[in-house]
Amino acid sequence: MLNKKQTKNWLHRFGYDYTNEPLSKALCGELAIEAKCDPSTLGSKGYGLAQMSALGFPIPPGFTIITEGCRNYYEKGERLAQEIWDQVVAELQLLEKATGKHFGGGPFPLLLSVRSGAKASMPGMMDTLLNLGLNDATTELLGHATNDFRFAYDGYRRFIEMYGSVIMGIDHHLFVEAIEAIKRQENIPLGAGLSLGALHTVIDRYKQIIFTHTGTTYPQDVFKQLKNSIAAIFASWNSPRAVTYRRLNQIDDQEGTAVTIQSMVFGNRGADSLTGVLFTRNPSTGAPTLFGEYLINAQGEELVSGLVTPQQITKQGRELIQAKEDSLEEKYPIIFSQLSHLASALEDHFGDMQDIEYTVEQGRLWLLQTRNGKRSASAAVKIAIDMMQEGKIDGQEVLKRIDYSDLERLLHPTLDPNQTIEVLTQGLPAAPGVASGLIAFSPEAVEAISKKEQVLLVREETSPDDIGSMAMAAGILTTKGGMTAHAAVVARGMGKPCICGAHAVTIDLPNQCLVIGQKKIPMGSYLTIDGTTGQVISGKVATIRQKPLPEFLTCMALADQTKRMAVRANAETVQDAAVALSFGISGIGLCRTEHMFFSPDRMRMFRKMILTSATASRVDLLAELMAVQKIDFKALFQVLNGLPITVRLLDPPLHEFLPSHPKEVADLVVQIERPLAEVEKRIAQLCEVNPMLGHRGARLAITFPEIYKMQLQALFEAALEVKQVALEIMLPLIFDAQEVIFLKKIIEELHQKIAPQIQYKVGIMIELPRAALQAATLAPLVDFFSIGTNDLTQTTLGISRDDGAKFLDVYRAKGLLKADPFVTLDQEGVGALIQIAVTRGRSAHPNLKIGICGEHGGDPSSIQFFESIGLDYISCSPYRVPIAKLAAAKARV
Ligand code: PEP
Ligand code: MG
After folding, report:
1. In sequence order, what E strands does 384-540 have?
2. Cβ-proximal residues to 427 (8 Å cutoff; 6+ apart), any chain
3. How far apart are CA 324 and CA 315, in angstroms?
């Protein structure tokens, strides 16, 4: 018996309120055992049972050894403390009294289920042990007590199998093979149960297997069975697979697992017994109807094994899959009505969709487990919104519950889960969605194939030259480049699936094939990419595109009501702007004007202009370019209908517009009708060793003002014609106030000359550490700062945004970096500079508007940081807008 003075209670008791009220009250007074009732103390299983117990629901009585027991096991050098074991033994006596059964004895032996259960569900952990407490003697007793020896020996067979594989670590396959062999010997048809004689043979064979593989016999002492099982569950907390699972899911190693020990009830005691699972709502569609299955005369593990086809619980579910066998609702209406009543009460109690395990033993219903159910992306959104509309949760809770990946999956086609796929390799998941297509390695091939079939553009990396073929392709795969490389940024902007930096893929141009490991894939063969996961998949696969549900729109409306920061989009075409507008943006935060020259005819004009050294002909060419830019600006202004647009004047180094391959140079010579030598000389002149730190952005305008003048003329003329325009002109790559003063003068001169009646704002990009540090001198000169975190990351860390992926992967693998700084903002470094820019900028110019337009504007954890430092807006690629809105809202709740 327990010493009453003990201070530490290791157990939490459940199930007595329902089972045997007067008995439990009297007995519970004897042992004041109660632990704190929360999921970290009891594990999620133990917590669910404790809650059901408090509600007075029908659960078989038992107790949970708290997670601290697991920590204690390790502190004691992987030993179960005597104090804990003493409490378990004492608690078993109580369980015996409550159930009228005896552990290890008769007349009716008490059998237990023993389950592990951490706070977070960990599928890599231990399985459940059922029927613990059976040995040669108690099995015989159970046969007598139930008058069903087949039931008793079948339970014994199941237990030895579980104990042998789960606790003693013997390959489960050996047991399966043994039973199959005996079934063949005895000519037992598939699916039929074993005769009592056959069960004896199986049990003998199982005992032999255990002896052969462990050199010991299976323990007949039921206390030893239990003690070993508890210790094995604690030990499994540190099994390699559990450790790996925790690493991958960021679960704290210190949490530990609880162990839940519960008196068994049996779903396999004849035609009036059954076992099943149910979800309180449909986990795949989210529909608010019960969804579940059951098996008559069976134990829980048969349901999950998939060997027998279970029956539906509702009539509607049965009709949906056109099954003939009766549903629970039709066959056992009273049980069904009890079950649905309890299920809906549990959902109300936990405020979320529940996944419930239940058993009916000889007509009596028992609940064995309840937890928040796993669900598909669309179900997650639908359930959260439905529950809000039913008044069960509030809007803030809805926002907390919806995952970014749920939203993302709602917008992009996803892999059809009902198929087998062959994953060839993994790259960076640069832009979400799934695309299958015939592979093509050049823009020409993309163009040719795309006329007939879906095509996947596969390149080492993409350049502005590829933009046309990217638009034609269903998806993009690059072997190099990181998450902010050209391919990634453009693909995200286009809403095309894209994988970057798939280093294991080699493009074998001479043999016109892709090589991935041992596999050669010829050009024109099918390949699939999943840009959400980064998986490169063999052949063509089926996808499903989920229509944006009305719930999706409700979720966006909730985010809009809750967030403080405005959300804008990075867009430069009418199509992209339209997509962004459909998601409800506050304006365009970055219009990269160089992207407007990417179509083949514009590219030709642009190239001609930069390759012409004679000023006179350059002026003519600039006039032609002006005319087309004006058309583009007008179209954009019109779709925006008065919403603000930040137009960034030309940013990239000129050489980015030039071809590098000899064949492309030769083509260009023909296109622009200039001598080869002249073209080659000009390309050489424009070539830079470090173009990203070179002649680009504002510097280009200081040396070649005519290009910016052309763009400004196009802007002001377009604005004058459309009138309803909130124009914001932005200067890239500024590092000093003198640059701003110089360029503002040019802007204002043209403004006065062309459109003095049009109002505009001027801002600069903060992309260089010096610009951030100089914020106090820069801010008074401008209306806004737009922080370009792509370049600011590159220039602060001194890591090339195009080449960094090569070694950043290694840094991450070695645990030196938590995340790719081009995806998730480096808050300590780049973030500190942004903070300086904000503080100094606002102290010199209190009304200064500050936003961010790098790729981090679409990254949830970076967005949380931007909220915390009080930025006014974030701007991201159009398809990222819903995620950005949700993140901006979540940052407020
Ligand atoms: C940036 O540098 O963050 C930015 C938005 O500009 P770009 O990506 O065009 O260099
Ligand atoms: Mg930049």
Report:
1. 414-415, 423-426, 428-431, 434-440, 455-459, 475-478, 498-500, 505-508, 513-516, 519-522, 526-530, 535-538
2. 477, 478, 499, 500, 501, 502, 503, 505, 534, 536
3. 11
The answer to the question of residue 401 being in a domain is no
| Residue 630 to residue 586: CA distance in whole angstroms | 23
Q: DSSP letters of 855-871?
A: GGGG-HHHHHHHHHTT-
What does the pLDDT look like over 94-141, one tens digit per residue? 999 989 999 999 899 999 999 999 998 776 566 678 999 999 999 999
Nearest ligand 1 atom, CA 592: 9
Catalytic residue among 498, 853, 856, 876: 853
- What digits encode the pLDDT tens for the residues 317-375? 888 777 788 999 999 999 999 999 999 999 999 999 999 999 999 999 999 999 888 77
Which tokens in the block code for residue 537? 């998949």
The atom number, within ligand 1, closest to the CA of 794 reads 2
Residue 672 lies in a domain: no
pLDDT at 834 (0 to 100): 98
Same domain for 234 and 329, yes or no, is no
- What secondary structure does DSSP assign to 58-76, as a single string? ----EEEE-HHHHHHHHHT
Q: What is the tally of structural domains in the chain?
A: 5
Q: Which of 8, 253, 262 is nearest to 119 (CA)?
A: 253
What is the residue with the minimal CA distance to atom 4 of ligand 1? 788
Structural domain including 704 reads: 563-653+688-892
Concerning whether 751 is annotated as a catalytic residue, the answer is no
Distance CA 731, CA 452 (A): 43
**Residue length, the chain?**
893
Q: 172 and 24, same structural domain? A: no
The CA distance from 633 to 636, in Å, is 5
- pLDDT value for 377: 73
Mean pLDDT, range 781-792, rounded to an integer: 98
Residue 668 — pLDDT band, cuts 50, 70, 90? Answer: confident
pLDDT at 703 over 60: yes
Work out the percent of the chain whose per-residue pLDDT is above 70: 93
Exposed, middle or buried: residue 440 (CB in 10 Å: 0-12, 13-18, 19+)?
buried
Query: Same domain, yes or no, for 533 and 594?
Result: no
pLDDT computed for residue 5 by the predictor: 52
For the stretch 399-429, pLDDT in tens is: 999 988 778 777 777 888 888 999 999 988 8
The verdict on whether omega for the bond into residue 548 sits within 30 degrees of 0, i.e. cis, is no
Are residues 487 and 602 located together in one domain of the fold? Answer: no
Protein residue closest via CA to atom 10 of ligand 1: 791
